[in-house]
Design brief:
single chain, 402 residues, alpha/beta, Enolase-like, domain 1, TIM Barrel, ten-stranded mixed sheet, three-stranded antiparallel sheet, 35% helix, binds D-mannonic acid, binds magnesium ion
Length: 402
């Protein structure tokens, strides 16, 4: 199965997406998601300038060898840009291999390990009352798990609370990043009680919360202790994860489950977090962490250490990534949960897919391959527009993690 074409398609149906499309000599096509929110063209040019020319003439069936060639052949290894590019190639090659076999991808990954993929929704609001209303609407739709994010009294804006409740999109098409302001003191003063009110109203629901990289380990330890009685499903990204050892402090103080990994692109960036059991869920995604091939290796390391998967699935991961994630999730033995933010109708128009939601679970469908395609005519109607993720400053102006 020789590769005869490899193209990068950039489009923007409401938000930017980068998609790699590979075509073989016998006309089979495979696609991979190469979107990196706020830095899309960095990956697009890495692919089109340096990777796509190397794919031509190679055997699409040699997936692992291709991964090793692109990873070890780059010299400048790892990092989110290079790994997102490798992820897209890997995903597209798995799509082709499954189509050639006439099977849905999960059948090539060992078949089903479960009947459906547990997903979580997103309830966001400026007030607890708004969040409660949204949690109720998710429960009405059959969700078993909901992430809750609240406005913080005293702050004009914060992560996770956007203008549009259903389609949360943090990237903004302005000339400069939107500036958010942050106060750990105001956050810690309000969020435990807010989550407590949701727990009181929904005693049996899986509740998740994303701190989004903003605390120090000891602040996160304090928050984890205060949330213990609320039995969270997980507390996500409590601190920036460059210093993996920092999570030892959190672990030594609290039993609140911890989830980390959506920004981490390789198994080596997770070795301490997983190896020392400093986390309970690993959040890496097909799109960021080296595709299906590398994500399976991360999941195997996690399996050895009682860590379950909880892949990232925000709207800046395209339906191509969501489809691939669901095949991976259906098969991986130590599955935990899958993030699911529905995409907008125009995004779904560009990326027709067979995956479906039903009563709190998702199913990738039985189409050969990933079960998702890119409609290039529709994509052409939505040209790229640069967009930035927000930046975050403390109340005194000091730069902080967003
Ligand atoms: C968030 C993401 O879904 C999550 O857990 O961390 O929404 C993240 O903010 C975006 O993917 C950034 O583009
Ligand atoms: Mg997150």
């Amino acid at each position: 199965m020789k590769i005869v074409e490899a193209r990068v398609i950039v489009c923007s149906p409401g938000r930017n997406f980068v998609t790699l499309k590979i075509t073989t000599e016998d006309g089979l096509t495979g696609i991979g998601d190469a979107t990196m929110n706020g830095r899309e063209l960095a990956v697009a040019s890495y692919l089109s300038e340096y990777v796509c020319p190397l794919l031509l003439g190679r055997d699409a069936g040699r997936i692992e060898d291709m991964w090793q060639y692109l990873y070890k052949g780059a010299y400048w290894r790892g990092g989110p840009v290079g790994m997102t590019a490798i992820s897209a190639v890997d995903t597209a090659l798995w799509d082709i291999k499954a189509k050639a076999a006439g099977l849905p991808l999960y059948q090539l990954l060992g078949g089903r390990s479960r009947d459906g993929v547990l997903v979580y929704g997103h309830a966001n609001g400026n007030t607890v009352e708004e969040v409660l209303e949204w949690v109720h609407s998710y429960v009405e739709r059959g969700y078993k798990a909901v992430r809750v994010q609240f406005g913080i009294p005293g702050l004009s804006s914060t992560y996770g609370v956007g203008s549009d409740k259903l389609y949360y999109e943090p990237a903004d098409r302005g000339a400069f990043p939107v500036e958010n302001s942050w106060s750990t003191e105001l956050y810690l003063r309000s969020v435990p009680a807010a989550i407590g009110r949701v727990r009181d109203a929904f005693p049996d629901l899986h509740l998740l919360h994303d701190v989004h990289h903003r605390l120090t380990p000891i602040e996160a330890a304090k928050l984890g202790q205060r949330l213990e009685e609320l039995s969270l499903f997980w507390l996500e990204d409590p601190v920036p994860a460059e210093l993996q050892e920092g999570f030892r402090i959190i672990r030594s103080h609290t039993t609140t489950p911890i989830a980390v990994g959506e920004v981490l692109p390789t198994i080596w960036d997770l070795r301490t977090l997983i190896g020392e059991q400093l986390i309970d869920y690993v959040r890496t995604s097909v799109q960021r962490a080296g595709g299906i091939s590398h994500l399976r290796k991360i999941a195997s390391l996690a399996e050895l250490h009682h860590v379950r998967t909880g892949s990232h699935g925000a709207t800046d991961l395209s339906p191509v990534c969501m489809a691939a994630a669901l095949h991976f999730d259906l098969s991986v033995p130590n599955f935990g949960i899958q993030e699911y933010m529905p995409h907008t109708p125009e995004t779904d128009e560009v990326f027709p897919h067979s995956y479906r939601y039903s009563d709190g679970f998702m199913h990738p469908g039985e189409e050969p391959g990933l079960g998702v395609e890119i409609d290039e005519d529709a994509a052409g109607c939505f040209p790229y527009q640069r967009a930035y993720l927000p930046v975050n400053r403390l109340l005194d102006g000091t730069m902080h993690s967003w």
